[in-house]
């Protein structure tokens, strides 16, 4: 398992099913959830890791202390007793029902990306991974997430049609109106489509955004997830 992790080269490439395997074993071996980092690695057979894999495991361990983990678990199970959050329940949790088609498109994309193993549900581990991304995710991790959101067909590139469609959907949800979807799309491609082929690769996207502070600020604001995070942290809006 960890040979594959080492070959992948980064935590973002780790197979989602492997993560679920670790989580399931952890809960079976330690129902109390009270482990130190050394014990955490021992229970999960995490020995002789590559530096990249070791850093990932330590990040997972330190993301939440145990009190916070139990806090989030309690909230997740209160909102979703089955332990599996469907797209419909995800919309209900965020009070995002009755959306127009553009808004539905955006929420479906967010849900699909948080659904790591693509089984049609968000379980507790995926729920925690989503919170970690929003709260503590490094900028390159967030940019990769933004790229996946834009890359609607999953072919590894973003074209203007995809960018325009998703940005319109984002506007339908968060009300961002500082510029039109057309202006946003044209500006992005003018700034970072370095070979002018009408498509953005992940490398072009990350390098271009990281080198342009104004562009970074614009993308961050356009993807404001503060309202989503508030609901995830505190529970359903009408119950806060």
Automatic annotation (TrEMBL):
Pfam hit, one: EF-hand_7
Keywords assigned: Calcium, Lipoprotein, Metal-binding, Myristate, Repeat
Alphabetical list of SMART domains matching this protein: EFh (SM00054)
Listed InterPro entries: EF-hand-dom_pair, EF_Hand_1_Ca_BS, EF_hand_dom, Recoverin
Top-level taxon in the UniProt lineage: Eukaryota
GO molecular-function terms, A-Z: calcium ion binding; calcium sensitive guanylate cyclase activator activity
Residues annotated as domain EF-hand: 102-137, 138-173, 180-215
A cellular-component GO term for this protein: photoreceptor outer segment
CDD domains in UniProt: EFh
Record carries keyword Metal-binding: yes
Name of the protein in its database record: Guanylate cyclase activator 1C
SUPFAM superfamilies xrefs: EF-hand (SSF47473)
